[in-house]
Amino acid sequence: MDFNDIQNAWNNDKSDNIVLPDNLEKIQSANTPLDRIRKNLKSELIAQGVSIVLIGFTPYIFHFEQKYIVPFFLLFAMFTAVCIYYLTKLYFFYKRLHNTALKTKDNLYETYFDIRLNMELYKTFGFALTPFMIVFLTVLIYDQTSKTTNFVMFDFSSTEIIGVFSAILFSILSMGLFLEWWVRFYYGKYAKEIKKVIDELKEE
């Protein structure tokens, strides 16, 4: 094969992953919001890990009665298992982002959809922890209230039961709204910047 044959073979070799020089700069502009997502996710993973450890010391910080300590740690064990499951998935997501190099359109598309998928995973994580947090708070309040002299176990009026039900419902709804805001603020706005680059590439 002479030089002309080699050149013709090169010209005929087309691939969707080849990036034009004009587009390469635009694709790499998505690295800035991607760096912000990496940084926020790393901070969250550290904060979540520290929070789990601190929650484990709750019975000793608030001086729980001995009879509440074993039920607390049974609940804490389930809470920790759920946290480990989701935080492991988010850690692997962080590692993927850390190793991502935005050089082609395919890289950009895959990274964007991975971000969107894990934003939903983060929301699911938050909702999965909501029942545990409500029970933790209930045990804490119950333990502190039981120390009063006029406390009678399970002696609740209808008004108090409605109040507790309303508080739980409000807590769940508030958690849902907070999660939506948190994910949009820390990750969503940067995902939108990446989506904007994708839309600009489609128009060309």
Calculate the mean pLDDT score and round it: 81
Indicate the overall shape: elongated
Portion in strands = under 5%
| Quantity of strands, as a count | 0
Number of helices: 7
Helix content: over 70%
Q: Using only CA atoms, what is the Rg?
A: 26 Å
Largest sheet: none
Order of helices and strands: HHHHHHH
**Uncertain runs with pLDDT below 50, 5 residues or more?**
13-21
Separation, N- and C-terminal Cα atoms: 37 Å
Structural class: mainly alpha
Explain this structure:
82% of the residues lie in helices and 0% in strands. The protein is built from 7 helices and no strands. It has helices at residues 3-12, 21-28, 31-56, 58-61, 66-98, 105-145, 158-203. The two termini are 37 Å apart.
What are the defining features of this structure?
mainly alpha; 204 residues; 7 helices
Short summary of the structure?
The protein is mainly alpha-helical. The chain has seven helices and no strands. Helix 3 runs antiparallel to helix 7 (158-203) and helix 5 (66-98) packs antiparallel against helix 6 (105-145).
